[in-house]
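pinned: reference chain
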Amino acid sequence: MSDQASKATAPTVDGRVYHLRLMEGEVSPYVILPGDQATTEHISTIWENTKEIAYNREYRTVNGTYEGQDMTMTSTGIGCQPAEICLNELKKVGAHTCIKVGCAEAIREDIELGEIIIPAACMRKGGAVTHYVKPEFPAFSNPRITKALIEACNRLGYKYRMGVICSISSYYIGQGRPLGGDDESFFPPEAETVVSRLRNAKVLALDTETAGELIMGYLHKLRMGAVLSVKANRVTGAWGDNGGEEKACRVASEAIRILMESDTEKTIRE
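pinned: its structure tokens
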């Protein structure tokens, strides 16, 4: 491969990975991954000594300490495609453990706004990960991370649900939302039943990218898990954060601290 070809295949800027603008040694190997750049504002109230070290496009990276432990947060943007870039480049700069922090839309009427969901596994429909593996490839959370997230919720006194969610790359039609507000708006018949069909399969909630992130984390040999806060209920029509996003950030931070307390070289590789 020519030098020019290698640059095009794995681009860098001044020795830094192209999109995240990071290099090895600048981040903790333990990383929290919110979709929204603004989540760093929640982290600033939870962590100490926060410092932004890179900000390019949707990718904002902040270092800090939680209960004396060094951690990193990098925003991924919305959807699976920018998360694909983020996970690949984080692996290149030394990350080995990642916890996604995001929002979900409950499809059960008994799930309240602000509740915590820990996905044990995910269904998936679409997304960049379709270029990696076949549809039947499973999306599941790393067991050690799942256990740490449960322990973190118990330590913090937060109610949580654990189960299956469905990641659908289309926010509107794919998740059963009409494009407009009148009867002439495009709305195929299968979109009308997407929520009811998933409810029948005992799925807890919807999001856009968790399944893809879990699969890509697995393929990159990253330990990967997720903690989501409920921001909407598609059955009751409720909408709002209700403090859930900050709770999810606290759960992820506490889970990483729990992992750090027990990790060995062997457990990190598992």
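why pinned: The mean pLDDT is 93. The radius of gyration is 19 Å.
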